[in-house]
Amino acid sequence: MPTKVINAVIHRLQNVPRTQRGASAVEYALLVSGIAAVAVAAMFLFGDQVLGVFDRSCDGINRVVNGTDC
User: Fold this and answer.
1) For residue range 3-32, what is the model confidence (pLDDT) as tens digits?
2) Helical H runs in 1-70?
């Protein structure tokens, strides 16, 4: 799904008339808030899984180096 959204945004940006040279502060604010919303949603959806991956890799490295878990 994120790829469809990204492709739609790219398509929209490619079809902007050339007379519009710059984006207003409002457009930048909307873009930043959209990126922030996606980041927060990803953290809530995948946070525990990512934490588990980091914990397992930390444990594995520490076992090799120190002989103990994190």
Assistant:
1) 777 777 777 777 766 655 666 888 888 999
2) 2-14, 25-65
**Distance in angstroms (rounded) separating the CA atoms of residues 63 and 70:** 8
Tokens for 67? 């002989």
CA distances from 44 to 37, 51, 55, 65 (A): 11, 12, 18, 32
Tell me the torsion sign for CA atoms 31, 32, 37, 39: positive
The identity of residue 1, as a single letter, is M
Output the CA–CA distances (angstroms, integers) from residue 48 to 23, 25, 51, 52, in the order listed: 37, 35, 5, 6
Chain centre to alpha carbon of residue 42:
7
Residue 64: count other Cβ atoms within 10 Å of its Cβ.
8
